[in-house]
Amino acid sequence: MAETKKMTAKEVANSKADRLMNTIAFRAGYYRSNPHRFVKDYLGINLKIFQKILLYMFMLNNYAIYLASRGQGKTFLVALFCVVRCILFPSSKICIASSTRSQGNEVLLKIQDELMKMSANLCNEIKECNIGQNNAKITFKNGSWIKVVTSSDSGRGSRANILCVDEFVKVDLNIITMVLRKFLTAPRHPKFMDKPEYKDYPQERNKEFYMSSAWMKSHWSFNKLKSYVAQLLDENKKYFVCGLPYQLSIKEGLLSREQVEDEMSESDFNEMIWEMEMGCLWFGDTDGAFFSYEDISKQRTLRSAVYPPLSSTDKRFKIPDLANRERRILSVDVALLASKKQNNDAASIFINSALPTQNNKYIGNLIYTENHEGLHTSELALIVRRLFDQFKCTDIALDVKGIGLGIYDALCRDIPDPTYGIVYPPLSCCNDQVYADRCTDKKAPKVIWAIQATAQFNNDMYINLREGFRQGNISILINEFEAEEILKGIRGYNSMSPTDKTKLQLPYIHTTLLVNELINLEYETKGVNIKVFEKSGMRKDRVSSVGYNYWVQCQLERKLNKPQNTSFDPTTMLQFRQPKLTSY
């Protein structure tokens, strides 16, 4: 019997090392192909079946769009994918982008505050967590990292193997194309690929992932979705698209069915917003729509709202003085009943800073807006009069038909303001002598435009408003998601009460609701006029207020172009030279 040759200590060590590396290679390959099992076996985190499928598809494909209803745990899943990728693929570089840095930071905070508390092994893998407003990055011991980048031109210069764009419908397409996608210049390069025997080893592909709820069909994001769907049907491409609505969240216990039923039964329930945010359904301009989303959305250019004081002692907000030839127009669509039974009743106020151009035109800027429900005539009149004074307004657009006449009569008298301890003097009508005569103070400033909304007036108003958006004569506030970063720059914002923070957010929110009202308006022809009406369950109080406001802007614009009346002086037509006197 032959004697078994004993291995040296070095050979034993090498044999153990080989077995260990083979085991690691086997397990790495196994878990890279089965990331959902890695989450269970190594991180100790239990996943629901849809989360396992999504995690697997993210790892398998190079491009993905994931549409998720609110409350589905989208941020949790993105954070989980990032840490799995970083652990299983050393030296991975992942960039998280969003419309705001705070939104991007949510992914890293989810890792730090939730995933690390759920998994001790994950804590051992992470070297450092640094999550600040200007610098947010998580570094792993194997050389991988995840960081948040700015979705703007200032974010240029970063490099990544994986790009994750959260709430991508809120990010500008040019930023994605010219800045974010340029991060993916070089694939991950493991060190073994530097060896000669691996010179022909295929390189890993970089990955792009986009996550959001649904949005408008006329938006660029819908075209991107359609292009991904077309690529998905090509078996040679690695594209993935899915939309998971709120019904799945209810089934998996992530969302309360009772809560959903309560929200859908509320009087101000907005079906369109619900379908986009919760149903993963894209909303588009329908047959009969009067306003185009594309025309309106391009006019959302105003970044900063102008605010009145939040209280009688608040000194943080200063309303600028009137510029040369500026007209500041306050418009109000009057409604006094609460919307529990009257779905379309809400008093809507808009303030327009109309600035003249060199061509004798006005460019309207809707710098502030607020809505009120269930007020009495005296209460709404006080609010209108107070805002008129605070914003240094020059004009008021008011529908005087029906209950609007009560507001007009109140404005024609002294209005005491107990909050500020002052009395506002009367105002009068400037465009209708009948209404001007109702004001007993004949010296009252004539600033109120009395509007009587006839069929012809409404026809002209809506057509002019549509053309105003198309021609770029009206600018409105950006959406509330983009405004978050701007609001954080306000002095003392972080220490404000939730009520005051909400007051600062509301102008942006009401502007979004204005856009929703506009694109949900339909019309039909009535003789020579058109009749514009809202869909069932929708409102148009904001649209009416903006329509009145823009109508006044157009009237003021006509005055700019009206020839000035000058008296004729015949002596200016003849000139005589003083005679030269000579002596004889």
Question: Explain this structure to me?
Answer:
The protein has 19 helices and 20 strands. With 584 residues, the chain is of the alpha/beta class. It folds into two domains: 46-190 and 205-284, Rossmann fold (3-Layer(aba) Sandwich), CATH 3.40.50; 293-312 and 322-561, Nucleotidyltransferase, domain 5. The strands form four sheets. An eight-stranded mixed beta sheet has the order 3-4-5-2-6-7-1-8, with helices on both faces. An eight-stranded mixed beta sheet has the order 9-18-12-11-10-13-17-16, with helices on both faces. Strands 14-15 form a two-stranded antiparallel ribbon. Helix 7 (173-180) links the parallel strand 6 (162-166) and strand 7. Helix 1 packs across helix 2 and helix 13 (377-390) packs across helix 14. The chain is elongated, with a radius of gyration of 32 Å. The N and C termini lie far apart (165 Å).
